[in-house]
Design goal:
The structure is a homodimer of 277-residue chains. Chain A is α/β, with parallel strands linked by helices and 277 residues long. Chain A has a single domain, classed as UDP-N-acetylmuramoyl-L-alanine:D-glutamate ligase (3-Layer(aba) Sandwich), CATH 3.40.1190. Chain A is 34% helix and 19% strand. Chain A is built from 8 helices and 9 strands. In chain A, strands 3-2-1-4-5-6-7-8-9 form a 9-stranded mixed beta sheet, sandwiched between helices. In chain A, strand 8 and strand 9 form a beta hairpin. In chain A, helix 2 packs parallel to helix 3, helix 5 packs across helix 6 and helix 7 packs across helix 8.
Chain lengths: 277, 277
């Protein structure tokens, strides 16, 4: 018989990455792997392979809004996740929709460039993220480069203020929590730091893996959204999602000539002969 | 350490269904659930909820081709699956790409209308499917309504020739095998029949479930593509995928006010207390 028990439903706003490494495809796999049902609103299309992004096509804001509204009027959503948005108009459309659901937590992964460094957001888009989405954000998940770009006062040719100060400014701009990931820092381990209104909440250190990965940020942000939808508190949601992501990366595979992709279903693979189950 | 062992890679050409019920989202979940890595080429966007399709936007054929070519030049694909195509131009683009990879099996799920009956393919698109894609198809997976529409001679106002005759014509038009699903027939059980060049290969009967489901056809076709990518022979791939799909439907859930969605990760859910593990 069909089940009346629903998996928690998470709505993502994201670009399509046909390679399955990042974007809404990564979100769908991560959310499914963590027991949630994904709703996926397409904000942009991309052409990409495992080496990088070749082309981007933003979807019209009306189409972004229509995709989301049809679902939100029909289903009960437990968390939002916003990834790559495609245009300033799309940010405005998403912000307006999310403002109608103030009780649903929002994880905002500010996708400003690809893992390889392809530019994916203009200065106008960064301003719009800051003004329209940050004040509605439960958790912002920038890497250290994105944290600096979002927090730096461009009008003011200042030196690097440090990541703790960036986090303080981003919380000041409206984000309830900020998780800054340390993959791009030159530290022996990767240190991810969660900040709230009273400063550092927790910091977790992870072994730095040797490969170059595509989609680690999407995986982490989606895993946190899944944990929030499953009812975890923010610090535990962040800790558990890092553990999940690290394992997905550690079990990653290289499908082409470029980067490794996370294996988001590592837990379902059969162990190799001779390997511990 | 990252793995050098790759999951089999399956490329789907499909429309986005933001509800996660059908379309490329269903393909991604099914392929992941069955141990494959999905590549997903977006052919069209839709607005839909759990009740039906509200709007369709076909993606330009150049964009469809670019998404696929970038990946095919980078990765080794073990199976193709084609679902909703969006336009005659997209069918031509997909057919040209697939003709460059004659050794990769192709599962063609001819999406002519939604589960609710929303029209998703014009007569021109049906002709193009027949002329350009059928001759390259390893397995065609129409439901009985689609089988009749694809097989009937429109110029000839004939009576229903029967499903075995429809299958014979579709094999005559170039499909290596045809699996006609019986959900829409008025039989006590659902009977799915696999035909090849010598007629019926196997027929499987399944308990008719009480609910109305969204995405059962996408799930079945993707599960077959996953099995072919995993190296199964066609009859075994078809039988196992029906079993998988039936279980996904039997464990389905109703996220909104419309149809039930298959639970493609039924095998990963924890049993309810008192239930057998």
């Amino acid at each position: 018989m069909p089940q009346d028990l629903l998996p928690p439903i998470v709505m993502v706003f994201a670009a399509s990455d046909p390679s399955g490494g990042a974007g809404l495809q990564a979100d769908i796999m991560t959310l499914s792997s963590m027991g949630c049902h994904p709703l996926s609103v397409v904000t942009a299309l991309t052409v990409q392979d495992s080496a990088g992004v070749e082309d981007v096509l933003a979807i019209d804001a009306d189409w972004v809004a229509d995709q989301a509204r049809a679902l939100l009027e029909d289903m009960s959503v437990s968390a939002f996740k916003v990834g790559m948005v495609g245009s300033v108009e799309n940010i405005a459309a998403i912000a307006e929709i999310i403002s109608d659901y103030p009780d649903i937590p929002l994880v905002l992964d500010p996708v400003l460039s690809s893992g390889r460094g392809d530019e994916l957001a203009s200065e106008d888009m960064i301003s719009a993220l800051r003004e329209l989405l940050l004040p509605q954000t439960t958790l912002l998940t920038p890497n250290s480069i994105e944290a600096r770009r979002l927090a730096l006062d461009e009008s003011n040719d200042e030196d690097d203020p440090g990541l703790a100060e960036c986090a303080r400014r981003l919380v000041g701009a409206g984000a309830e929590y900020v998780l800054i990931t340390g993959t791009h820092e030159h530290t022996p381990q990767v240190v991810n730091s969660l900040y709230g209104e009273n400063g550092l909440v927790r910091a977790d250190a992870w072994e730095r893996l040797p490969g170059s990965y595509h989609g680690s940020g999407c995986t982490l942000a989606s895993a946190i959204a899944a944990n929030l939808a499953n009812g975890l508190e923010i610090a535990e949601a962040v800790r558990d999602a890092q553990d999940y992501t690290w394992q997905a990366l550690e079990n990653g595979f290289r499908p082409g000539m470029g980067q490794y992709l996370p294996d988001r279903f590592f837990w379902a693979r059969e162990p190799e002969p001779g390997e511990d189950a």
